[in-house]
Amino acid sequence: MSDLTHFNDQGRARMVDVSDKDETVRTAVARSSILVNETIHRQISEGTNKKGDVFAVAQVAGIMAAKNTPQIIPMCHPLPLKGIDISFKWNVDEEAGHYEVLLEASVKTKGQTGVEMEALTAASAAALTIYDMCKAAGKEMIIGPTMLLEKTGGKSGDYKRD
Amino acid sequence: MSDLTHFNDQGRARMVDVSDKDETVRTAVARSSILVNETIHRQISEGTNKKGDVFAVAQVAGIMAAKNTPQIIPMCHPLPLKGIDISFKWNVDEEAGHYEVLLEASVKTKGQTGVEMEALTAASAAALTIYDMCKAAGKEMIIGPTMLLEKTGGKSGDYKRD
Amino acid sequence: MSDLTHFNDQGRARMVDVSDKDETVRTAVARSSILVNETIHRQISEGTNKKGDVFAVAQVAGIMAAKNTPQIIPMCHPLPLKGIDISFKWNVDEEAGHYEVLLEASVKTKGQTGVEMEALTAASAAALTIYDMCKAAGKEMIIGPTMLLEKTGGKSGDYKRD
Amino acid sequence: MSDLTHFNDQGRARMVDVSDKDETVRTAVARSSILVNETIHRQISEGTNKKGDVFAVAQVAGIMAAKNTPQIIPMCHPLPLKGIDISFKWNVDEEAGHYEVLLEASVKTKGQTGVEMEALTAASAAALTIYDMCKAAGKEMIIGPTMLLEKTGGKSGDYKRD
Amino acid sequence: MSDLTHFNDQGRARMVDVSDKDETVRTAVARSSILVNETIHRQISEGTNKKGDVFAVAQVAGIMAAKNTPQIIPMCHPLPLKGIDISFKWNVDEEAGHYEVLLEASVKTKGQTGVEMEALTAASAAALTIYDMCKAAGKEMIIGPTMLLEKTGGKSGDYKRD
Amino acid sequence: MSDLTHFNDQGRARMVDVSDKDETVRTAVARSSILVNETIHRQISEGTNKKGDVFAVAQVAGIMAAKNTPQIIPMCHPLPLKGIDISFKWNVDEEAGHYEVLLEASVKTKGQTGVEMEALTAASAAALTIYDMCKAAGKEMIIGPTMLLEKTGGKSGDYKRD
């Protein structure tokens, strides 16, 4: 059974030594979401159809957060990311009054550790940005669940959420 | 009905002018959570009882993220935060195999805008840090839902989630 | 005649003490520009009319750079900015083959120093971002001239470029 | 004709995937400039001859900005820069009352994308720093034009401004 | 006897709430030092007399580190610093082969917490920068002792090292 | 005799070109220390035995500072660090009233320059964090001496302090 490798002999956190790992192409895809009210749904949708694009700002926020992940997550290794993308999809059931944005963040690198944290951080930052830009119309929005959908590359093998 | 105030005449995002708002004490409390497996629950719990304290690292990550919120959330105003705290609580049902960490982040400032985003960002970063430190023992962890519990101060009045 | 106040007795740079200055509302507007070729003009324009909005990304870059100015400009005082906006305008003469984007960045604060540098930095970062996103279609783009258009507030009085 | 590769299928910005590109040595040289008045010219020149060296501060600002480019330019890839240098040259015509500082920033890396943006950002930050340190003696300074002088390395080949 | 106020009820670190403290002018002066060999002493001194000024770079590093202190020291409050200065003095005894740079960093703000950490961080960063720029000529340099010389302002009163 | 390689022909600082150096595994270990009073010694020790762990926060601060070294030390090359660890040891002589924390920071990378600065910066930031968290119980603490204990890898060979 695996132990918490992030701790040293003194029981305190360290950034694990990965210098022996292989440098391979690694990808990760994470999902988050944000549940909004009808007003916010209409505002974002209309904005997107015209020019005021909440998702465009969230996109930039997510991409920059992916690059800043080692500054946000203390034990996360710095990695020269090679590609980052984020997509948005509405999941709406008007009758049920359900208005939800699904976000997917994809990150790619060639390095000695995986990019799960970068994908998860990108998705979280994008969702938080949507919250920030829409909170004047309703503070009850709910972010998440946020989770890893899949990863490839590295010794621990590929992962795909069922 | 309120519009999306974060957009200018050209339909592009701006950081809203708050220079006319009152400078008052403002607080916000946000919650996030992370669902883990039994192994991770045991590792964190044992570590906490000894010295290897996952939550101690998550605490620092959340506090630093609160201070960095204006760099993470593009349209968020910079604020000289006056106090930040984060607490952790286990919500466990062993029979149901349910192991969940509840996180609450409290932020306080005296300024012209609220600190909802700082509290939400702190809670998210703390949860992401737990994910990072435990992912070797299970990548299926689920972060969130993440939400605002309450806020005080400012013209829009207090908010308390039902 | 004024001396270079940014130097101490040893002739080395310091961040000037402004603690005796009045805390007043201060604004600044700066302009930059970027000269592009016909292809880039068409790509940006079409993107803007559809959804791929180069200016939306440049907008976010400029706003975040304004907030980061004290980290970019060494002797610049940190200030809690209250409002930031950026606008874009095409200056096109098709016959002359002249395609130019004019950018204006407006920044507002209430503090003890002015926000000229924040406005100039925002305009510069927004122009650099346009360069970055369009450089695959022509590296000969020219940024600037970049200049202060006006400022208000503070002891040195208002300034307006002729 | 090349398209705007910085956009995904949803028409929103992404950080382009470069993981298939070759890792080669890449260099870029960018130029900026700043037009100052006679007083500022004398202050900088005398400072340089003695000890208060405006250019020394601008140099540090430019080098640090080059390293921070992926935080300033949203879609720019992070790269482990290998060398950065900046040089300054006066272009003065006393009779015409023309006092101009020319700045050249050179950046080198070994990586999968070019360093044009790092060179342009370094030159811009250095020029902005000169503005900041001299603005007490005249806010009418003009920064730029800022442009790429040359680049080498990478699939798109070398570039040299005529 | 004072307790460790930086811990919450769960025994984990928090950023202490200072919103009830008075906003007053606060200053702090910290000292560090770096012991170098004869070669480095000569190189720095000659450089300073000509143009290559190690201390000029260390000066900028210290000033920027003072502004970044809340990002470097996790529980440190963000403060809008009003003035920062650093000075350098040689303490040399050629017969004893003793070559030491003394650094003093002064920081001033108007706020609800003191600036001891900003002064100590500035002095440390400046000393580290000297190490970095001279390490090719001798890695045995010794930094420190680093200490607070004095502080003024705030409820806990003034402090002056004997 | 080696010159100051950090200066260009104009006598101003540059980030030295290292693109011709070999990419090898490199390690560095640095030491710092902090001298505290009896009260602080007791507070930290009791906290460590329970849950309020000053060293846990200092550990995170040191690890994040190692990753931020190129933003703190102006001429320092950015490097993708592979492992970082910090350990703490009490050096106590109760009769002499001597209470000192010894800190050791170890950093590892695979790259074209060494990691001495990262190790020294990590040790310094960890010591500064201890100062910050304990300063309410005594501002007379002394940080350092801070020094390099050893390094391996790179053309200049290994170094070990006597």
TrEMBL record, chains A, B, C, D, E, F:
Keyword Lyase: yes
InterPro entries in alphabetical order: MoaC (IPR023045), MoaC_bact/euk (IPR047594), MoaC_sf (IPR036522), MoCo_biosynth_MoaA/MoaC (IPR050105), Mopterin_CF_biosynth-C_dom (IPR002820)
Binding-site positions, substrate: M75, C76, H77, M117, E118
Keyword terms: Lyase, Molybdenum cofactor biosynthesis
GO MF annotation terms: cyclic pyranopterin monophosphate synthase activity
Catalyzed chemical reaction(s): (8S)-3',8-cyclo-7,8-dihydroguanosine 5'-triphosphate = cyclic pyranopterin phosphate + diphosphate
Active site location: D132
Gene3D superfamilies xrefs: Molybdopterin cofactor biosynthesis C (MoaC) domain
Coiled coil ranges: none
Quaternary state and interactors: Homohexamer; trimer of dimers.
NCBIfam families: moaC (TIGR00581), PRK09364.1 (NF006870)
Known role: Catalyzes the conversion of (8S)-3',8-cyclo-7,8-dihydroguanosine 5'-triphosphate to cyclic pyranopterin monophosphate (cPMP).
Homology family: Belongs to the MoaC family.
Protein name (Swiss-Prot/TrEMBL): Cyclic pyranopterin monophosphate synthase
Species of provenance: Bhargavaea changchunensis
Species classification: Bacteria, Bacillati, Bacillota, Bacilli, Bacillales
